[in-house]
Amino acid sequence: QYFENTFYSEFSYHMRHKLPLTLILFDIDNFKNINDTHGHIAGDFIIAEVAKRLNPMMRSENVFARYGGDEFVIVCKNCDKSGGLMCAERLQNSIRKNGFTYNENLIQVTLSIGFATYFNKNCLNPLELFKQADKFLYESKSKGKNTISYEEELKP
């Protein structure tokens, strides 16, 4: 609920002030396999550790939240496409370069990321921006995971 309220408010603000706003969605690749192989407690551990590792990388004005299951969302205020790509690459590299150790087992984790950027009235409402970011997340997953998908401008 906090995410939704903040996202809708930020979208309005950025629209009114003609500022870019990037919405990043990502999830943990092959999360079901982690649960099936190492157990659900290990899966919960991975979710918490991903959040702990990424949280310090966030700008203080951004909103970083778990959206559901193994899916996370970031609202990047006053952030254009190039800034969104830079953020997405940092997130992905931070998780990919070092695994997570649970019960003396190294678990390698990767992220699929999709993002969309609002700028200059290229979408009409926050739900449209969310749907675009979600579409790009699924595009990343369909490309074989561990990828980033996005589009420079949304078509109204």
Word description of this protein:
This protein has 156 residues and is α+β, with helices and mostly antiparallel strands. The protein has five helices and seven strands; from the N terminus they run H-E-H-H-E-E-H-E-E-E-H-E. The strands form two sheets. It has a five-stranded mixed β-sheet, sandwiched between helices. Strands 4-5 form a two-stranded antiparallel sheet. A hairpin with a 2-residue loop joins strand 2 and strand 3 (71-77). Helix 2 packs across helix 3 (40-54). The longest helix is centred in the middle third of the chain and has 17 residues, at 81-97. It is elongated, with a radius of gyration of 16 Å. The model has no long low-confidence stretch (mean pLDDT 93).
Short summary:
The protein is an alpha+beta fold and 156 residues long. Helices cover 46% and strands 24% of the residues.
What is this structure's SSE topology?
Layout: H1 2-16, E1 21-28, H2 31-38, H3 40-54, E2 63-68, E3 71-77, H4 81-97, E4 100-102, E5 105-107, E6 111-118, H5 126-142, E7 148-150
Parallel strand pairs: 6-7
Antiparallel strand pairs: 1-3, 1-6, 2-3, 4-5
Helix pairs in contact: 2-3
Distance between the termini: 27 Å
Low-confidence stretches: none
Report strand order across the widest sheet: 2-3-1-6-7
The helicity comes to: 40-55%
Helix and strand string, N-terminal first?
Answer: HEHHEEHEEEHE
Specify Rg, calculated over alpha carbons: 16 Å
